[in-house]
# Entry
Amino acid sequence: MSLTADPLIVADLGGTWWRTAILTDSDELVEIRRERAVTRNSTRSHPSTLRALMVRFLLDRVHALRAICPEARQVGISIGAAVDARSNLVLASAPLWGDYTEPWNLLAELRSAEPDLEWTLLQDLTALALAARADTDAKAGWRCVSVVTVSSGIGARTIDLATGEFDWDSRGLQGEIGHLPVPTRTPPAVCDCGTIGHLAAYASGRALERDLAASAAALGVAPRTTWLSSLRAALDSENEAATAFLDAHTAPLAATLLAMAVIDPRVDHIYLSGGVVDTLDSHYSASISRGLDEGGGLYLASNHPQGRLDSMIDRLPGDDGTLPLRGAGLAARADRNERR
Ligand SMILES: [Zn+2]
# Structure
């Protein structure tokens, strides 16, 4: 089957779902497939085994997609792990591998297994930011936007809209906000990275599900397929205890967003994305908005009316979970154009 003149194979390896597809020249995703992520939390396997399974999954899917579309020779991979943007080494992923932090040259393994293919690897947040830049209508005058994902983990990425470039710290990282410590909260919660008290330990999807499983009966939340969908149904039915539960969990993230919005003056907008934002939809935005207002407004800290910042924070448009696939494709295409 010839889908397009110059197709790309794309993959997005998150902490909840692993997706693969073909991205056509006209930026259409076809042959999309979604499978449950293979993680330390779901299997209790050693991360070295999980990494070997990830390579197997990627090679199997690439072979399957090339059987459908043999002319696809370029592969773009978005991974839900901290990636050193200078060396492309995968450093760690709390949702995928817990507290395991052995650097991993995934790209070298893939190139060695399939040297005839061209491989591109980037962190999922970087892919998401590239897709957001391409897909959203930036308002005139916006310099940078930040994307913040709330799913099995939490992270942020800021992109320069004019150039599509990212700034990196000396380790090739940026925006690892999920592992910022938050002011003491009780009871203490352990982050997937193994540390007590990180933002992700209170505000990630896994934290919401853990705490809801423990308190659903007291909150009057009926169990459904997933705890997140149970929470969504309770919020839809205006369950006040469920709203208070959500607000308690979004509060530390709202405080972090407030700091992000005030500290970097180039950031003109913050987009929220990820499975939690997607499932809870307008309830999530409303909860973040209440969290932003909690402190009683700002003084000289922003150029937004009365210091209110909720107008600069909203949900990423067109976000159906496939944007990192698109971003991986954009990065792979840019690599290809550079080589030509
Ligand atoms: Zn952590």
Summary: The chain has a mean pLDDT of 92.
